[in-house]
What does this fold into?
Amino acid sequence: MRAAIAPLTAGLSSEVEIRIRKRFHNPEGNFLLNVHFRALAGFTILFGASGAGKTTLLDCVAGLTEPDEGRITVGGEIVFDSENKCNIPAWKRNIGYLLQDLALFPHLTAEQNVAYGLRRLRTQEREARSREILMAFGIDSLRDRRPEEISGGERQRVALARALVTKPRALLLDEPLVALDRPTKSLILADLRRWNQDHRVPILFVTHSGEDVFALGEEVVVLDAGKILAQGQPKDVMYAPRVETVAQLSGFENIFDATVVAVNKDRGTMTVRLASGPVTLETPLVRVDPEGPLRVGIRAGDILLATESPRGLSARNIVPGKIQRLEQRDGIVSATTDCEGTHFEVHLTLAARDALELASGKNVWVIIKTHSCHLLAG
Amino acid sequence: MNWEAFWLTVKLATLVSSILFVIGIPIAHWLTSSRWRWKFLVEAVVALPIVLPPTVLGFYVLIALGSRSPLGRWWQSLTGHTLAFTFEGLVIGTLLYSLPFAVQPFAASFAGVDSRLLRASASLGMPPLLTFWRVVLPLSKSGLITGFTLSFAHTLGEFGVVLMVGGNIPGVTRTISIDIYDQVQAANYSSANQTALVLLIISFVLLSLVFGLNRRACAVGPWK
It folds into this structure.
């Protein structure tokens, strides 16, 4: 967590600085959003459980909600400053905002929705620009359809295209991947990455999914009950969480750096070697850059332990190891298992521990299903 | 059937509902978007004609239009005659009387537009008035039609205000409802029945149209 923020460097215009306080409500009660952070060009993930104040924060930046006090600058320009009574209205801020529920205009076609923000352009230019982005997003064929006539994933892309086509100075995305199936998700992520390469503006990306953080994160800000718990690169914040909440939020007790050693197209799997030791795992086949950084996340509750070498099992990953430590927390037992230098955290019930007579130093087999291995692209 | 009275009434209703359409939209917009703390007073004033006896409203309108009021004097200096007992006076009285029947459906449909759409519109650089024009109005079509039709139908059947403000001058201020009253006074029941039936049928058709439209709007979404 950063103790203080260095003064604004001149010339670095494409960044967002947010220092605000704002009371907000959620079903669990009243909270105070009290944050101070900077977001440079590129993705900054705002990560936290529902009700942490993420959407309130975006609303403040967009100008749809007025903070109680503070200051917000976008690209060096002050858009809100309580001391100088400055509050530029949302429609003058030129900040793209993909709302969580999309809010596509139901009476307009996909193309009209996308062209909506281009009112200052001449008709020809407006049509060209919206047609161009519809093509780029692969939704040109839907241009004459209304939101109710297209699928959820398509709506998401229309809404995204609508926010991006105006070439905003900053982009706010509120859970843009929630409720999408995996293939659609990765396509939209690819669109976003591509766009980000061409337009270097700050992108505040709100999510409560740990996977998204690894998929996109250059920088992650962890929010809980209105406060920033941690900020930094995903691998520092999420991999070695200094704050317990972050680990819980990320949902992956086991996160390993890995490299691809084999791709089994016919079986829909691939084999990855963990950086921590000689262990290899079979994982689902996903499109990843084979040279790029790759991480595998495994939930502690998804791992089985056996005290004898198992046979006749469907699980593809069976790794011998030794129990290093057993810890009891509430109703579960957390077993740290050492497999030639790779440490797996495994969660078991008390009854399972007793039935297997687990104890430190006991030889065990760690069993992980292929589909319990989640690939988190770096 | 008194056709002169019939066409006069249709003319009055068309004029009044058209004017109410134009002035009712900004009033309804103000009522739905203003955060003024005394707004409820304006809401109450707009709704008054619903509960007020038409004779009470007609009485005050008559006073306001008369040659002793500033408005009446101003009109007299302009045209040479007072507003009372003229078609113009009738229009003014009926405008007030039918105002809530236009403004309330308008305001209800404006308020029913999802506020998230307004937020999205603002974030796309659209100023509030343009947002109203491009999002709120198109999504309020059924409310606009309801308000127009209700104010039209309501004006058709207006009696008390017309009698107070317009009197009963054939071709100028004698509307069908007054004609029916005249027929009944003259014990001319079959003629009164004929006219009354026409009014009943028109009102029924208009209201069925409104409810039919609103049902369709709910079922398939805003107007294709």
Notes: The radius of gyration of chain B is 20 Å.
